Structures are given as structure tokens and as C-alpha cells.
Amino acid sequence: MTENSTPIATRERTVDGFVREFLRELNFGQGVDLSRASVNDQYLAMARTVRHYLMVRWLETLRRQGELQAKSVAYLSAEFLLGRQLDNALLASGLEDIVEEGLSSLGIDLATLRDAEVEPGLGNGGLGRLAACFIDSLATMNVPCIGYGIRYEYGIFQQTFVDGWQVEKPDDWLALGSPWEFPHPEAAVRVNFGGSVEQYQADDGVVRRRWVPGWSVLAVPYNYMVPGFENGRVNTLRLWSAQATHAFDLAIFNSGDYAEAVRAQTFAENITKVLYPEDSTPQGKELRLQQQYFFVAASLKNFIDEVLPEGFDLHNLPDRINFQLNDTHPVIAIPELMRILVDEKGWDWDDAWSVTSKCFAYTCHTLLPEALEVWPVDLLGRLLPRHLEIIYRINDAFLAELRQEYPDDELRVRRMSIIAEYPVRAVRMAYLATVAGTKVNGVAELHSQLLRDKVLNDFSEYYPDKFTNVTNGVTPRRFVRLANPALSGLITEAIGDGWVTDLDKLSGLEPLAEDAEFRRRFREIKLHNKHRIADVLATRDGTVVNPDTMFDVMVKRLHEYKRQTLKLLHIVSLYEQVTSGRLDIGSVTPRTFAFGAKAAPGYLLAKQIIGLINAVGRTINEDPALEGRLSVVFPANYNVTLAETLIPAADLSEQISLAGKEASGTGNMKFMLNGALTIGTDDGANVEIRRLVGDEHFFLFGLTEPEVEQLVDRGYHPSAYYETNASLRRALDLIASGAFSNGDRAVFEPIVSNLLHEDRFLALADFQAYIDAQARVDAAYADPEQWTRSAVLNVARGGFFSSDRSMRDYIDRIWHTPPVPPA
Ligand code: OAK
After folding, report:
1. What family does the database annotate (predicted)?
2. Which domain range does residue 286 map to?
């Protein structure tokens, strides 16, 4: 390192050193002194102080990467659901104790500052949170990675309830300042849209085609630190924000039409204004395609022009980078790289394809056919005319290849075309990703199997080696170490602290399942965590929960396939039996049913289901006969922050999707690692959870995927279950009677009628099996020693679900990017 590139001095890692830095930030960064500082001032100063401590590591990581040019991962994702940053930064930098002591010497409570942080909700659910776990793991494992995504000005909406109905509020997460980001307006890049394609004669005499764009916007990068856990590495997450190329069109401005002059700016900045709140159901909106191309074009340009060294021979690109496509949202990167190589660099098509087809890999995160993105060619051609041409050419070459392989099977060839012809001509993004990608992976064993056998079956026959599985994982730093300090302490006391970066070490807890004292302490911690969430809910919503009950928790996006209605039918059925006198409340296991779920604003049935959960909850919670024994809580605005206190308090994890519909689930893993037992179907990663923990510590129920298929093929009639199952009938009748809607039968009629006549996700078919499994839950819970034994074993056998292991699998099966240990 040359002298003038030596980074700033390391901050003094002492309590006094921290206090000095903090006060300096308060004075010089916020312009206040301690006596006048608001909590937000203190939080911002604190966040900046902590990031200063990470700065040397970040600069050093960047410097070394520039020098080594090691093979890296560029994780392209339209969503990164990060959660709060402060705690994670403190943990990664090993500053927790110093900071706590330093702040307390100033009379400041660290917990208060923690609570001042507004989490960046730049994702909808599973897919975005997975991206955040993955970049955490890569940093911790010393793997060079850049995350590329979108800095939405408004993240996932804030959910409120008005009379039990979901009402969305904008998520103004930037309002009070965003101390974790580093804007770089000077490094903005131009992203083009629209216009047309023209033919021209290049200098070498060859006739070529090029894009003549119609309009453009600037993409401004905002960098975020992604600190590894106590390892000196800090990777980068780069989120792009849209800005107008000219803030004002002066000609228009001078002509006096001020509003028109500002319009162009507003139009451009709309691109990153808001996250689309649909989880796995694309709406096919033009602005959405603009978002996708915007961040992908900016990212490729940034990588090629700024991250690669000057003079880099792009023929070697596949040795230097893997662009991982997080579902189909960034797939437009494939024709974009082709365009750069062919149109801008003047390469032959075949050379360009040979490089492009080695740079990308695609992860699919769904099985729902309606979730697979397709872009009508009208829309795509209008927004990105050259890309559409390139896609057509990729498809032509692909179809020609297929016709050679399957000369007598034109039907198959058409099925596999990247271009769909019906109901409108459209580009199938998953097919494009499969054709161009080196690998295609599903996110749990069953999901990958179904991708191979069903959704992408023709492709897996044609490219048998392309398909692989990488089962999802979650970061143990955030979801155990930070979320559950009490359990983390107990684990560390028992097996040392190595588990935080090597989660397989949790297996060392197995023998302790037989240790009565360990079990007692384990139970005590669960109770402590129940009190913790009870306090949070009391303060936040005025909700009362009884910690001396079983916590039965279902938190996830509201979707029919996840079957919140099945859970509700269980609750209503219990209520109905108790209130009709057929069941003695004294014999019912006291339970707190907790829900957390946002519904896409346009998904009306999902919003109705939220209304029904709240209505049932209100009725049960107001019934004095059930007080302290049965209650339903549904805190509004479930997000990463709430997950971190709710999950560690759970006894029972509800993972009850219809088999074959949930790609993986990751909440299921977080619950397991925090000592909850799962009641679940044979779906997604539940399959692996059950295999690892063992049947006797898991409550399995419901149809299997092949059984679902058979039943649907035979013709599924939900009303037959209603007719033949008395408790199901009574529960549905009670809802239909208006018992939860002041006698108004119309309010929840759409839900009842949907279940009786359609029930796309077979809730009624699985009802009895679910009720029987819940009876097994009650029986097991009645024996606290046995229950705790199972809970301990869930933790001990959960090590596989670390996202560090997922990253190892991606590295071995897809990326081949060795870690770069610190110097
Ligand atoms: C979002 C948009 C389009 C397609 C899929 C999603 C999505 O969030 N899928 C979820 O991804 C998670 C991470 O892989 C899985 O655990 C969930 O099962 C899946 O629904």
C-alpha cells in the first residue's frame, strides 16, 4: 500500500474512544450537543459512529479486491429486505459491549436508540429477505460479492388496521435520515429507454444495428456496507436511485410552464419511487419493467466500467463474475449484456453469446404458474426495442437447435419457445433465463424436483445438467444471535461460540436434550421471550397476551396457497365447540394464536381473510369465558423487526401450505432454530426439516404433492367435505351466520363461498388431518419435559439451515468462487 492511500486510522476500540467519537458525531454531524439531542439525533450519531469503525475494513476490502480481482458474485435482486442495520453492525464489528457501556455512561439506553431505527423494507417477503441473508453469509465467509438492487424511496407499505381491515400507508423510511447509505451522485450512470433501432454501416464496412433511445434517466448509486461477522471483511450492496437527466428543461421553464418543466423530473424519479407490493403475483406493469431494466443496466455498466480494471478483456468475464439472477426480475440483464458486447463493443454474435451464456445463473423462487413473469412483446418492444430484437434472435437460434434435437416434435419446440403466442405474444422470462443461464436452481429439494419434473420439464430433459438444488437458509447472526440473546447465551455456554459461524456445531446440543437442568433453562428462556414479545405488543398496540400459554404462530405473506384460512378454521372450530358446550374450556390447551401477514393491496380475497382473522380475534378475545385461555393476536405491520421478537417466543410454527406450492419457506427455518416445533405439510423445506429433526419431533399432516395432483385430476369438490365433516360444517356455518360480523352474513360470504365452491388450495380436504395433528400437538405439549426435549432437538438439528451452508452449496454447484481470506 502506498503511503497516500493509507486509510484513516483505526478508531480507538475503548469505551472512552467510542464516547469521544459519538459526541463528535453528535456535535459535528447533527449539530447538537448532548443536552439538546433528540433520540433521532442520538441514533443518527450512533449509526455514523459505528459505521466509522467499519470503514477501515470496507476500504481495505475494496482495495484488496481491486488488487486481486478475485472471482466474485454479483447478486442481482430487485429486493433486499435488510431489516434494521444498527444491531447487525454492532455485532459484526464486535462493538456491542463497548457501545452499551459508553452510552450508559452518558445516560443513554442502547435499546432506545435501537428502537429509533426505521427498518429499510425494500422487499416483500421471502425472496427479498433471502437476498439479505445471502449477502450477510458471503461477507462472513470472505467471499467477494456485490449486491445490486433498487433504492425504493418507499418500501413495502405500512400496514394498519381500521376496524380490522387492512389499510396501507406509504413507507416513508427515509424521512428521518438514512445513516447507513453512501450516495455517489458523481458516479451516476445513464440508463436509456424507448426509441427505435436503426441499421448503419460501421467503420469496418459491416452493416450493424443499434439502439437509438428515446429517453433516459440517471441511476445514482447508494452504497451500503455489508459487514462480515468479526472477520474484517465488509462487502458492498449498491442500490440505485433514479434521477432526471436534467432537473429542469430550461426551454420549457423559460416559456413559463413551470409545472411541465418539473414533470420530466417527476417522471424519471418515479422509476424508483415505490416497491411493488405484490408478492409472487406480477402485475405486468410497465413501470415494473422500467425498474427491472433500470437497475440491471446500471449494474452491468457499473460492473464493466468501474469494478473491472481498465483494459479488462471481456472474453474473460466468466472467470471474473457470476451474475446470480434472483428470480426473473433481473433477467433482462441477459439481452443487455448481449447488446453491450455486440452493439457497443462490436463483437460477433457467437462470441458474445459464448461469453454471455457463461455469466448468468438463475434461481427460481416459485411454483405458481401465475407467478412466472412474462412480458408482452408490445410493451417490451416499446420500452426496449433493441432488447426485444436480441431476445428474438436468441430464441431463433434456440429453436433451430431444438428442431435438430427433436425433428419430429414441433409441439415440444413450440412449448419451449421463449416467446409465448397466447393469450398475447410475450417473452417468458424464466425460459430466457434457463436457456442463457449456466445453472437453474430451485430453493428446496421438493421445489427443485418439481421444477425439473413439471414447471421446466422440457428444459430439464434438454439440459439435464443445468438443473440443481440449493436449499435456502437463514443467517444465524440476525435470527438467532441477535434475535434471541438469551438462547444464544445458553448455547454458547454449552458448546462455545463457534456456532455463530459454523451452525453445524449446534449438533453439540443433542446430548443436552436429555439434561433436565438444560431443559429447565431452555424453557425459562422461552418464557422470557414470551414476556418480551408481550411487552412489545402491549407498548406498541395495547394488546394483552398471556405468556403462560402455548404460542402458536403463523407469520408470512397472506396468500391463499399458504392457507391462513385453514388455521382460522381450526380456531373457529375450537371456539364453536367451546361456546356450544360440546367442549369444556378447561380441557383445551391454553393457546395464544399469533398472526402476522400483509396482503397485496389489490388482492381482495386476501384482504378479506385479514378482516376475518381480526373479526374472529375480536370475538374470542372479548369472550370472558375464554379469557387467559384462548386468544388471537394479529399485530399490524409484520416486518423483519417484529419477526425478531415474535419468532423466539413461538412454541409452535405453522407451515401449512398446500403440498407442492411453497417453494421453500424460510420462516420455518427461523422457528426451528429458535426452538419451536413445526406443524406442517410435506411442502418446501418442511420436507428437509422433518427429515433432519425426525418424525417424532414434527407434526406432519395433509395430502402429499402426488395426492394433491390425483385429487385435482379426479375432480375436487370441496362441498363434499363440508357435507361429511360435522365440525368443518359447523365452523363454516358459524362464519357464514354473521357471528363474527354483527350478524351481517354478507361480510365474509366471499370467503365461505370461495372455500365451498372453489378452494383452489384444498383447505377443506386437509381440514380433518390438520385438526388431528393439532390434537397431537396438544398431547405433546401436555408433557413439558418431552416437548422441551423436542424443542432442543429442533435447535440441535437445525444447523443445516444456515445461509452459510446455502452459500457453500451455491459456491460448489454454481459459482466456483473460492473465499478470499483476509491478508
Ligand atoms: C417473489 C416474487 C416472485 C416469485 C417468487 C417470490 C417469492 O418471494 N418467493 C418465495 O421465495 C422464498 C425464498 O426462496 C421461498 O422461501 C418462498 O417459498 C417463496 O414463496
Report:
1. Belongs to the glycogen phosphorylase family.
2. 73-84+122-438
